[in-house]
Amino acid sequence: MKTLLALARDLRDLDGQGYPAYKGIRGRYDTAGYVLHVEHVQGDPFADPSRIRVDVPPATAGLPAWTVRTAARRRATADFLNRRLAAALRDASRPLGSGNSGELRVLRPGQEVLARASVEVDGDGAVRARLRAGLPARGRRIQGEAAAALLTESLPAAVEGALFYAALDPEALRTHVETVEDAVALREQLEPRGLVAFVADGAALPRRSGVDDRPLEAGVVPFDSPAALRVVLPAPHAGEVAGMGVPRGVTLIVGGGYHGKSTLLRALERGIYDHVPGDGRERVVTVRDAVKVRAEDGRRIAGVDISNFIGALPSGEDTRRFFTDNASGSTSQAAAIVEALELGAGVLLLDEDTSATNFMIRDARMQALIADEHEPITPFIDRARQLQDELAVSVVVVVGGSGDYFDVADTVVAMRNYRPEEVTEQARAVAATLATRRRPEGGAWRPLRGRRIDPASIDASRGKRASAIRVRSLDRVDFGEHLVDLGAVEQLVEVAQTRAVAHAAEWARDHAFQGTGGFPEALAAVLAEVARSGLPVVHPHAIGELAEFRIFELAAFLNRLRTLRLRELP
Ligand code: ADP
Ligand code: MG
To answer: Taking the CB of residue 542, how many other CB atoms lie within 10 A of it?
Structure first.
């Protein structure tokens, strides 16, 4: 193995040469107790910056045993190091010359604490980082001196200042780890206590803006649980934590417009993840199999059995195996629910703001005007109880507009001035005095028809390229010749998750969909392989910009592929 000194010399020698000469620096370099690995060199200054892996052995990283003892602690510690490294690399970046010359960067985490390929911490305390460096050039001529400074001075300084325990604020790291461990412990208590979510008193739920997920800074009304739903859960570090327990069953969130209903539901959606200290949602936790479902007109639907919600269509299409390239509000929402159930969702989260009205409710007057045979939709209100009673799937639904839902609710929470009140009894009393007069529709719940995917239909090829996957943003992926729009997949929170599911979809084609199993079994095999081999397994180049994902988000990606086809069932 060469040393960093040798790398500096080599880089200076390359000064003035054409950019491709950089290829020669690929390899491993020994430095102050750790290894810098130039894994891939960009082809030109405008291409994705070069990939660098940093392997820090336990003795050099110096992480104390408490930081790595459990998987949750390793994830929290890695997340903490990742944030420090992102800040240090940003400070060390020296934009110069052409393209991304002089840029140093690593994945920048959001408010959630996720497992990521960008920084990983092993059980023995080894630290691995996957980052990027834009090798400097003027035009297409190598700037050797600048490259030497970047790779052998700035980069090591950032690494040593962010990944070595000795350089860190130990109290901040401890708070980070304890916050995550508390959230994990709170979440683990939900199921045994018959809860689907928990919102601690004092939590700050509103966000700075629709495009800024950090906490709102001023005027936040802290969460204050209603006595009837208050539970106290022990957390290993925070001690006894009081807050609102959302019970299994059908829960309504009602209240006037702008009183904080959607903000509460969004916090529950995100409660499947742990949050960084100071986020406001550190102690808002939801069971991991809770899935947000919403309307998404225009989406693709591939062979989903939506017949429990959508019966005979005027076009005569088979809704037990429904295909469309342009779903309506109601068919898209029905598909989203069935797709979640197909993967074993235990809780469905719905908000009237993002639901199709005719999917949610058909009132007595509309029932009287439009005869059953002309209305294919069985509204969600008629399925909510069956989901709970027959499939043991809980539902949390925001409905400010329809009191008919009182008839199917187990629990009703009213938001008033951002404060929750428990109003189940009042809602029952209202339902008893003001009868809805609507008739239940839809009959018995019919078991869902399973799907098997034709692997050949997962096709990312484009022109001569067998695989062309470009992740444009959190919500948009060019997958071969088609755009995959993930704007309605609201529990996808980091672009690195989007990248991971896009590549996992292709990986699944080659490794998981070849067998005879159904869709859920194939996806479970992907998740199992990621758990066994790590996130980079889904990507051909083991890049750092990958983050953990659930089976639901992987399915959501595949379900939105415009090319997806089914195999014939035996
Ligand atoms: P609803 O769904 O009931 O119409 P929203 O949840 O959309 O209301 O909230 C309306 C506004 O109030 C949003 O701008 C949101 O950020 C803000 N808000 C929500 N909860 C709080 C709170 N606890 N403290 C301060 N502002 C809040
Ligand atoms: Mg709302």
So the answer is: 17
Q: Where are the alpha helices (DSSP H) in 67-193?
A: 71-92, 144-149, 155-163, 170-190
Each residue's pLDDT tens digit, 353-398:
999 999 999 999 999 999 888 899 999 999 999 999 999 999 999 9
Rounded Cα distance between 317 and 323, Å, is: 8
Given the CA of residue 259, which atom of ligand 1 is nearest to it? 3
Residues with CB under 6 A from ligand 1: 205-206, 216, 219-221, 255, 257-263, 415, 418
Using CA atoms of 553, 556, 557, 563 in order, give the dihedral in degrees to the nearest 10: 160
Between the CA of 258 and the centroid of ligand 2 the distance, in Å, is 7
d(CA 105, CA 494): 16
Q: What is the DSSP letter of 203?
A: -
Sign of the alpha-carbon dihedral angle for 8, 12, 17, 19: positive
* Close Cβ partners of 385 (under 8 Å, ≥ 6 residues apart): 250, 408
- Cα of 404 vs centre of ligand 2, distance in Å, is 18
C-alpha distances (whole Å) from 177 to each of 58, 63, 277, 281 are 18, 13, 9, 15
Which ligand approaches the C-alpha of residue 203 most closely? 1
pTM for the complete prediction? Answer: 0.97
The protein residue whose alpha carbon is closest to atom 26 in ligand 1 is 220
The best mutation among 258, 270, 349, 353 to test binding of ligand 1, ranked by most ligand atoms within 8 Å of the C-beta, falls on: 258
Closest by alpha carbon to 118, among 129, 134, 132, 105? 129
Question: What's the half-sphere exposure (Cβ side, CA atoms, 13 Å) at 209?
Answer: 2
Q: How far apart are CA 218 and CA 7, in angstroms?
A: 50
